[in-house]
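Risk register update: the risk of archive-format incompatibility is retired. Evidence:
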Amino acid sequence: MPVKQIKNQKSKVTRQRHPEVISGSIEIPKPFGLAQGGQVRNDKKGSAHDLSVPTYSLSGAKSGTLELPKEIFGAKVNKTLLAQALRVYQNNLKAHWGSTKTRSEVKGSTRKIRVQKGTGRARHGGIRAPIFVGGGIALGPKYRKVILDLPRKMKQAALKSALSVKMAEGEVFGVSGLEKASGKTKQLSSLQTKLGKKKLLIVIDGKNEKLSRAVGNLQGVQVLSFDQINTFRIIARQTLLLTKEAVEKLKSKAI
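Archived output:
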């Protein structure tokens, strides 16, 4: 199903750098089933429809397991939809910034530069024509920002595919004790070092100012609320760290 174009803004705006812009294309990983990070739990206490992943504390020590709903983290991956969603999100992060002036925008007189006939020269209506030096630019680039959008159900299906890809790669873990974050960068840096991951996306259920301040100086680490994540941000990060509360609220977003 093709995406629909919902806006075409032609007015000039101030250019802003977006932290999510990634040079080059993103390679969509190929899932080969569940890796070392997740396994299907089937015992007396748990359901066969849940996936179990280890949970880590702020110090990097294992502190139990986290049950993940299989309908979200174990769904069938739709590679075509996943690629389409990534194209939409990447397109919305950029704009065509080049802009030239047409003959109606450059400075110059509007009078006819010479009479129509009798001079033996070509006929012209004004000095601002593109053929003259200092005239307007014909067919030059103009600023435009085209925003693409996906239907809600397609967004949800793409989000499930992205989470399932990360789960299949073994890059989904639980995290606990974030309410005890002191706001020090060293605390989160030690967790990143012990996990051995360069890019982390920590998903929480709400705002945590101390946690956000702690990761402010860490390259590759980002903290987002459950309602801020999307397909692009999940694929762009190497590993996902989820709190128990975020998983519960994520069900309403993806289902």
